């Protein structure tokens, strides 16, 4: 009665209804004003964060170690202490792809921008040259390639030593071939390695001219059952893809590195939306294979959300363990090997977890569960490959 009498005479500021509590029973608006002192906002923020953290503690361990537990709890109506399935999947999806993107950037940063091997030594052109000028030209080309590899600044010490050994070997083979052709050994200055500034590749053609050439040489996309706007969009994506690949392969170091990073960012930008499309399709597969279990599509969708949340969590852990293993390998080899075994265990746990989840939720015998698990996995595998291929092409055309 105290709670009711404390709001007597008060009316909702939104709809004017007499208040009977802290929230209007007509429109749901709170009686409290949003204009509060700063310390009240800090208190509410801390309370919200602690509440979410508490749900994380109750959600993540079962998600990783108890197949099907969260889904069965959700079906049983015990949902307050756990993070909602869509929110859980959404956060883990973004977080796993973000960390995986960082790992890919670290690997890509150690590779040359144009994608060519760091050390590519081939003495066949020197040994098969028909005249002394050909020998000297082939030798100079190989020395330029070695200098470009050194100039990247990412070669480890062992490869730098190997580059010096390869350079001496190339010079010996060139001198031997010149002697076989009856020519005098070339002076050191004529085969000296050019400085990094002189070893750069040819500059990239102007962007406008390159775009015009690509548009002229590329046939427009014409798919009969698609509208003209969709065909025009596909044609534009094809032009962008060709342009990015041209700059990546034939551009100078700066332009090639920019194109490489642009394509990587584009791919990771398309992956989360791709997965959001695949999750309802996975639920459709569950609906088709368990049509006689008389479950609602929403139940299959919750199974799909929790299954994908587990896979995103596994991807996140695999990436973090891999990054940690790479960092520890030079300092403690035993730790790197132990983390490698942990990664292998995580990879093996993924199919086992998904199989146990399917068995515990749908409660069929092992023979039928194994058969349906294999069929669903086979269908989803090819669906995933197709979707990832499209995401890769769209991202590369970014």
Automatic annotation (TrEMBL):
This is DUF3667 domain-containing protein. Keywords: Membrane, Transmembrane, Transmembrane helix. The keyword Manganese does not apply. Residues 186-212 are annotated as: Disordered. It holds the Pfam family DUF3667. It comes from Rhodanobacter denitrificans. InterPro entries: DUF3667. The chain crosses the membrane at residues 86-104, 271-292, 304-328, 334-356, 377-397. Residues 186-202 have a biased composition (Low complexity).
């Amino acid at each position: 009665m105290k709670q009711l009498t404390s709001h007597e005479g008060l009316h909702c500021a939104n709809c004017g209804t007499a208040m009977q509590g802290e929230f209007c029973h007509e429109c749901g608006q709170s009686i409290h004003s949003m204009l509060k002192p700063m310390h009240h906002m800090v208190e509410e923020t801390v309370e919200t964060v602690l509440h979410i953290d508490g749900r994380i503690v109750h959600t993540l361990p079962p998600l990783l170690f108890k197949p099907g537990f969260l889904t069965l709890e959700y079906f049983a109506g015990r949902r307050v202490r756990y993070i909602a399935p869509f929110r859980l999947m959404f956060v883990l999806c973004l977080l796993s792809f973000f960390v995986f993107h960082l790992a890919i950037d670290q690997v890509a940063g150690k590779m040359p921008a144009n994608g060519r091997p760091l050390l590519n030594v081939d003495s066949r052109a020197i040994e098969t040259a028909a005249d002394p000028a050909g020998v000297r030209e082939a030798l100079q080309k190989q020395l330029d390639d070695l200098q470009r590899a050194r100039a990247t600044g990412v070669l480890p010490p062992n490869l730098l030593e190997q580059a010096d050994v390869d350079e001496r070997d190339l010079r010996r083979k060139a001198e031997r071939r010149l002697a076989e052709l009856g020519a005098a050994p070339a002076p050191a200055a004529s085969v000296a390695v050019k400085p990094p500034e002189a070893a750069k590749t040819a500059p990239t053609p102007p962007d406008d001219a390159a775009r015009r050439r690509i548009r002229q040489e590329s046939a427009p996309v014409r798919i009969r059952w698609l509208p003209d706007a969709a065909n025009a969009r596909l044609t534009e994506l094809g032009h962008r893809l060709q342009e990015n690949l041209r700059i990546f392969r034939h551009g100078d170091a700066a332009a090639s590195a920019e194109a490489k990073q642009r394509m990587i960012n584009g791919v990771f930008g398309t992956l989360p939306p791709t997965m959001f499309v695949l999750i309802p399709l996975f639920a459709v597969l569950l609906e088709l294979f368990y049509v006689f279990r008389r479950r609602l599509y929403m139940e299959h969708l919750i199974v799909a959300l929790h299954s994908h949340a587990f896979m995103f969590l596994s991807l996140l852990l695999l990436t973090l363990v891999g990054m940690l293993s790479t960092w520890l390998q030079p300092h403690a080899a035993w730790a790197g090997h132990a983390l490698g075994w942990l990664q292998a265990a995580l990879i093996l746990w993924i199919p086992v977890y998904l199989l146990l989840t399917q068995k515990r939720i749908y409660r069929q015998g092992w023979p039928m569960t194994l058969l349906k698990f294999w069929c669903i996995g086979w269908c989803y595998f090819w669906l995933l490959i197709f979707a990832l291929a499209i995401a890769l092409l769209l991202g590369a055309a970014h």
